[in-house]
Amino acid sequence: MTLSCPDRPGIVNKVTGALLEVGANILESAQFGDPDTATFTLRTVFDCDASEDSISTVLDPIVAHLSAQVRLRPADYRPRVLIMVSRYEHCLLDLLYRHQNGELAIEIPLIVSNHTVAAPMAAHYGIPFEHVPVTPESKAEAERILMRRVEDLGIDLVVLARYMQVLSPEVCAALEGKAINIHHSFLPGFKGPRPYHQAHERGVKMIGATAHYVNTDLDEGPIIEQDVARVTHALSAEDMVRVGRDVERMVLSRAVRYHTEERVILIGDKTVVFS
Amino acid sequence: MTLSCPDRPGIVNKVTGALLEVGANILESAQFGDPDTATFTLRTVFDCDASEDSISTVLDPIVAHLSAQVRLRPADYRPRVLIMVSRYEHCLLDLLYRHQNGELAIEIPLIVSNHTVAAPMAAHYGIPFEHVPVTPESKAEAERILMRRVEDLGIDLVVLARYMQVLSPEVCAALEGKAINIHHSFLPGFKGPRPYHQAHERGVKMIGATAHYVNTDLDEGPIIEQDVARVTHALSAEDMVRVGRDVERMVLSRAVRYHTEERVILIGDKTVVFS
Amino acid sequence: MTLSCPDRPGIVNKVTGALLEVGANILESAQFGDPDTATFTLRTVFDCDASEDSISTVLDPIVAHLSAQVRLRPADYRPRVLIMVSRYEHCLLDLLYRHQNGELAIEIPLIVSNHTVAAPMAAHYGIPFEHVPVTPESKAEAERILMRRVEDLGIDLVVLARYMQVLSPEVCAALEGKAINIHHSFLPGFKGPRPYHQAHERGVKMIGATAHYVNTDLDEGPIIEQDVARVTHALSAEDMVRVGRDVERMVLSRAVRYHTEERVILIGDKTVVFS
Amino acid sequence: MTLSCPDRPGIVNKVTGALLEVGANILESAQFGDPDTATFTLRTVFDCDASEDSISTVLDPIVAHLSAQVRLRPADYRPRVLIMVSRYEHCLLDLLYRHQNGELAIEIPLIVSNHTVAAPMAAHYGIPFEHVPVTPESKAEAERILMRRVEDLGIDLVVLARYMQVLSPEVCAALEGKAINIHHSFLPGFKGPRPYHQAHERGVKMIGATAHYVNTDLDEGPIIEQDVARVTHALSAEDMVRVGRDVERMVLSRAVRYHTEERVILIGDKTVVFS
């Protein structure tokens, strides 16, 4: 369960009281009160024989009383993730391998790509692959297909794993808080295209990557995770691309794990990450 | 407040209920249930007008019921720290500067050294300094002086900031959980003397430092914090000493901060650190 | 070209003179004089139209004069790497993907495993796979097969990518300087089996991995590369295994890249790494 | 000796030949050819009984022939560094301590500050301190004083150790390549004032610091060194200031060491750092 509400005394006591009532045993719990917005956030994992309905019955009045936003889901629920990719496969591979070995407890009903490069990899991992080419003319139709797949397949999260097409503001708005992008720079530095070339040009000594929720403001969405790697004058822009790949895939995979384990709570355009 | 007790359902609810009763508003809270030992640990910071006595009155029955170990202290209490040092001053300086700029909310009633090198630094920061030489003959007496100072000055924590004398088992036992040492290697690698020379000899690619509670088993106490720095073949053992100094002082200062902010709870010979 | 010889004045001048003579243009060069052993090491990459033979003709007298060990190879030569693996595939996958995307400029003529788990992955990447089961009885025969493959396939490097069988002293000796192992701890800490469980037991705050040349002294070979990741009290030994996988594959892949790009020179049981 | 010149074959051979001629024994050498600008750079440390004059006699024709820029200085020369500081002393303290313990082989003839806060620290370390207040009216005069001190004291490097006044374009131009500033963000992110507050506002997951040469374009000078530290949602802007202090002082001290050990060569607005 995750919960977010205006901060006030007694929240934890009320919530834990309700959970006790249905015989829940708390396994893990983390909380954070944001002083800037006076918002209280809570993530708790519990063991409980009661049905989801009986838990809701007990929690609902409290939730209403607290004006809280609550997500309640079985710990063994596997969020359904649609992955979008273009030609660079390193992030996709990282997600597929972690999916296969159990690190990411998710379902991947579909991979969508505007190229066909990733089709063999998808096949190897047994994931359906759909090629949806994007041209200026077909872009609107491509997005309609995407949104239909999201709906038809009950998708919980869209991951842009180096998907190189900019989504329209409508799609960004529709997927707000439900789509994660990896930007290949340490935001807010080097927004926009070819960030490694920008970094090389500027002569920075570290490069990074940023996983963030997609919003209508390109490369400005709430940041979930970032990391960096050290570089030197001796690295070309292409070398930085190589070094950056490792950072990108680590950062994106961590962000996807945090999100799908319900470890991320949005407060405005910032994230609380119970890592 | 920190609390440690055998794990069972309802602990958080009981404790938060008691805190509500005395009008406490929780500002910060973190908890951890250790599956290996079935121990529950909790650290909570709260705002409360009630006196410490009234809080205890409400908490005591719960504490007894839970067979809990509880530490309750005002957030503005400044733990009293005695620092011991030999000839290398970098860790001492780091602690003194953080003390001066307010990062470490502690009192430092005394610095004890078996050398006089650090006396001017102590004077500059306005901290009393006592020179207690240690020879094989005077060691027992030196330790008696130390323990008397600990008692007389109401010392909460002894920090061995590169104090190069081995404490006797009796002193280690007396200070268990109340003395932090910095070992200049990434334990459990390179125990014992001259760890950087051992590291250089072995050709490692990273060196580290470890802050740990002192116990009777030299370099084997519960680890509080560790960190590393990258080294190369081009560094001599002396270069590693230089690189290592930065790691040592960071690691020790973090450990002291964690301890004095009551962020560390001991479970057996391991630590829970609510960083 | 890499060169290693007793240190003395004039080495670089002689070598660069010889290279000039054959019209070589130096693209990259790094050198290191080890004060402990008075050994000079050099790695230089140059562009040259002359044949390997003419280069040797010019270099040979200098090499003899310097009592140097020299390796000279075309920059586009792709070292032939045999990978051994047991049941954990993360390191293997990392190597195969970097091979496929061009980061590792190597040939992989064969994957050998004492299990069949990795066969589909090998097939997907188009690499021959041989299952060589190892039992106490068949171990000697399995090693004979291995050494025959090394010879028949002209193998330059054997990579133990989480190969869980201990090689016999004879094989270790035969492959000295030509076999890299990944040990899943930050050596010299936690030698031997189940290092993550040892690390969890000890309560360390960082875990690591070490890539080293295989020698007859288990987990004691020359270290090529190491790295670490931060862990907390909240991680189980199994969680540490998960975190450790990322460190292992990064460290092993870097070590393989360093070796196959001729960036590693052995001095005794330590390495010079021109990274 | 450091050398920078248009790249062409034979440079190293010529230079090492000249050094051999004067009986120099090379102790350390690093080189880099920048493909973007076709510039060759070299740093070499050598042991030599010949006088500086005789070395110059041998080198001069080569230098002229190569159109090279060369700096030649005795290894035991201690560059003269003037430190400027405002109210935050952490960077200053780090420099003074490293100066005192020998890590920084420099002279510090003067500390200049627009405040008096740092006077006691300067006194403790035995460094002359001059208070030069800066108001809109007195700024021009303050800069005249600064430039006079630079000249009179034979200053090689000016270090802005959290000096919070913007230098005029004239002073920046006069000190080009001879003044290092620490900016308390991971440039190019968060230029301008209060970068930690900007970072907190943006919700980044890492903060950093950047040491760069001062030029007329504020926060845009050539970067020498950068580093970062991990932060979380739980840190306030003030907490980030605290975390950032450690990054700032490490980064600035490293940059000063690199510069004063002649490890930095400027190519346009980028640096080669032979670290």
Task: Write a structural description.
The structure is a homotetramer of 275-residue chains. Chain A has 275 residues and is of the alpha/beta class. Chain A has 2 domains: 2-71, ACT domain (Alpha-Beta Plaits); 80-273, 3-Layer(aba) Sandwich (Rossmann fold), CATH 3.40.50. The first copy, chain A, has 8 helices and 13 strands. In chain A, strands 7-6-5-8-9-10-11 form a 7-stranded mixed β-sheet, sandwiched between helices. The mean pLDDT of chain A is 95.
Output the CATH homologous superfamily of the largest domain in chain A: Formyl transferase, N-terminal domain
- Return residue spans of chain A where pLDDT drops below 50 for at least 5 consecutive residues: none
Rg from alpha-carbon coordinates of chain A:
20 Å
| Helical content of chain A (DSSP H or I, runs of 4+) | 25-40%
Q: Mean of residue pLDDT of chain A?
A: 95
- Tell me the β content of chain A: 25-35%
Compact description:
4 copies of one chain form a homotetramer. Chain A has 275 residues and is α/β, with parallel strands linked by helices.
Write the SSE topology.
The structure is a homotetramer of 275-residue chains.
Chain A: E1 2-6, H1 11-21, E2 25-34, E3 39-47, H2 52-66, E4 69-71, E5 80-85, H3 90-100, E6 107-113, H4 119-124, E7 129-131, H5 139-152, E8 157-160, H6 169-174, E9 179-183, H7 195-202, E10 206-213, E11 223-230, H8 237-260, E12 264-267, E13 270-273
Parallel strand pairs in A: 5-6, 5-8, 6-7, 8-9
Antiparallel strand pairs in A: 1-3, 1-4, 2-3, 9-10, 10-11, 12-13
Helix pairs in contact in A: 1-2, 3-8, 7-8
